[in-house]
């Protein structure tokens, strides 16, 4: 039988605008992400626009992709931007320390076919804003500042602007988001928060003042550590006390880390299902705790959270091909994890200025898998499509009354909310997203407004009869979105949300 749920929404009680950048992307020179995933080359038979896979661009436009973080990840801290400019046939083949550090014996060289101009072209074609990560690991403040000048200086100022023009872009790229290093507690330099804070100040103090005004993002914690790594956040901000250097964003990396789980990725049981979704829900604790820690140092709340790497990371062994490291299979379970994570992000829109899924294609929590002329949208992709309307809408107060679910877990049993969701409003449209994580029972939900009327509605649903279902390169259409009829009766929406399902509704209100 169905589990009942009552949902009360107050569209007039609006919170902050949901920053579209929350629905952002992350791409790195790793395995099959850039080469073959995104970059197929100008002479490829695979349909492409200036070397970029066309299907990738088309689908990104469908989800109104807001940004790309590039070139890493750990790769960024070994990347020298000059290697990726100029005549592609003359670019050097350089050492990819990041791939070289992996035990799988990957190609440890980088051809540099995809550099800043190709990246900016991807942003332009898809309508995304660039978010660049500076090399703090093996680079210098000077190299960083030169990159800023190369990208942002108008022609007629510094010579680097003329060089950019000679390489094809007279107009400055206008890059606003700058990450200063990546995981400096690990691959980015194995630093203490105090060491990082002092280097951060050196990298930022002489930042070239070409427009636009930069949004500077400091390296933050490894949120999936057992103790949430609050020591990093506290240590960094303590070390920044008494200094004038600005920090606009603090990066958090929060992976649902199942690398050590013995289960196969594509065949799991109920416990595996719920464990992953529970970890997605834990995003809320990570955000709240780091936000509270930051508040002690930044009472005016200038610094916002940037969750610039998140997703479920499984154990290796089921990649598309071994060279495409981390190109793991994605299933319906990961779609539900995505949905509950987005609902957390939405509900904390006052704190989060950006989030970037790791990574868009052929890597970890991907929206797409690709190899040669084969291409698949994963279940995760469809959640981006379903949540698209939340972008730039205002968070609306929502109260969900549903029984908790008692579920099996690694430690025996646990409880999770029987229904998760968020609501947002733009003009006269209310967007409501809800997830029923139960493997057993549908939820019979009633949605009503505390004041005002619902006149009509439409919706979409993502579900499948098998919890382990996913899309592969051989079976790319196993899971896809379906239309969901939404009936409004007596000013209420009455809806049955099947087990293992995500629904998104657009309600017209007066
Ligand atoms: O996304 C893969 C890797 O995970 C990134 O390079 C790094 O920043 C993180 O550890």
Automatic annotation (TrEMBL):
Keywords: Carbohydrate metabolism, Glycosidase, Hydrolase. The keyword ATP-binding does not apply. Its EC number is 3.2.1.55. Pfam families: Alpha-L-AF_C, ASD1_dom. GO terms for biological process: L-arabinose metabolic process; polysaccharide catabolic process. Homohexamer; trimer of dimers. Belongs to the glycosyl hydrolase 51 family. This is non-reducing end alpha-L-arabinofuranosidase. It comes from Edaphobacter aggregans.
């Amino acid at each position: 039988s169905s589990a009942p749920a009552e949902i009360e929404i107050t569209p007039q009680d609006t919170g902050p605008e949901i920053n579209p950048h929350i629905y952002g992307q992350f791409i790195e020179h790793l395995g099959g992400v850039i080469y073959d995933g995104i970059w197929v080359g100008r002479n490829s038979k695979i349909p492409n626009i200036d070397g970029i896979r066309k299907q990738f661009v088309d689908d990104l436009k469908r989800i109104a992709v807001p940004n790309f973080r590039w070139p890493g990840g750990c790769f960024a801290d070994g990347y020298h931007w000059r290697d990726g400019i100029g005549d592609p046939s003359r670019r050097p083949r350089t050492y990819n320390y990041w791939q070289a550090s992996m035990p799988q014996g990957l190609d440890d060289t980088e051809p540099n076919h995809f550099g800043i101009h190709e990246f900016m072209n991807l942003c332009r074609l898809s309508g995304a804003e660039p978010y660049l990560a500076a090399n703090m690991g093996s680079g210098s403040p000077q190299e960083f500042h030169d990159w800023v000048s190369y990208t942002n200086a108008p022609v007629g100022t510094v010579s680097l602007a003329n060089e950019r023009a000679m390489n094809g872009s007279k107009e400055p790229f206008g890059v606003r988001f700058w990450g200063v290093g990546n995981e400096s507690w690990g691959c980015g330099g194995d630093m203490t928060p105090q060491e990082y804070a002092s280097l951060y100040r050196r990298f930022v103090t002489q930042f070239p003042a070409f427009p636009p005004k930069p949004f500077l993002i400091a390296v933050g914690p490894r949120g999936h550590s057992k103790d949430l790594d609050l020591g990093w956040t506290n240590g960094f901000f303590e070390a920044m006390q008494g200094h004038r250097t600005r920090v606009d964003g603090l990066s958090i990396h929060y992976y649902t880390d199942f690398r050590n789980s013995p289960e196969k990725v594509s065949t799991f049981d109920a416990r595996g299902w719920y464990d992953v979704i529970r970890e997605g829900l834990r995003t809320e604790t990570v955000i709240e705790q780091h936000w509270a820690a930051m508040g002690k140092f930044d009472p005016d709340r200038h610094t916002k959270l940037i969750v610039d790497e998140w997703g479920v990371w499984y154990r290796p062994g089921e990649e598309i091909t071994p060279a495409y490291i981390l190109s793991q299979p994605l299933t319906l379970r990961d779609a539900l994890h995505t949905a509950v994570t987005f609902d957390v992000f939405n509900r904390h829109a006052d704190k989060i200025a950006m989030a970037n899924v790791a990574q868009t294609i052929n890597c970890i929590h991907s929206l797409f898998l690709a190899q040669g002329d084969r291409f698949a949208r994963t279940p995760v992709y469809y959640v981006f499509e379903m949540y698209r309307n939340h972008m730039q809408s205002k968070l609306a107060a929502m109260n969900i009354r549903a029984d908790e679910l008692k579920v099996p877990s690694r430690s025996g049993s646990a409880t999770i909310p029987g229904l998760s969701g968020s609501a947002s409003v733009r003009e006269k449209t209310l967007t409501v997203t809800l997830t029923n994580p139960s493997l057993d029972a549908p939820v019979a939900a009633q949605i009503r407004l505390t004041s005002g009327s619902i006149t009509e509605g439409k919706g979409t649903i993502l579900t499948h009869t098998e919890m382990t279902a996913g899309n592969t390169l051989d079976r790319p259409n196993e899971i896809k979105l379906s239309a969901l009829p939404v009936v409004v009766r007596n000013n209420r929406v009455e809806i049955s949300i099947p087990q293992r399902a995500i629904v998104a509704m657009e309600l017209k209100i007066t």
